[in-house]
Amino acid sequence: QVQLVESGGGLVQAGGSLRLTCAASLQIFNNYAAGWFRQAPGKGREFVAGIGWSGAGIKYADSVKGRFTISRDKANNAVNLQMNSLNPEDTAVYYCARGGGYSDYIHPSPGSGYDSWGQGTQVTVSS
Question: Which pLDDT score is estimated for 27?
Answer without folding.
Answer: 87
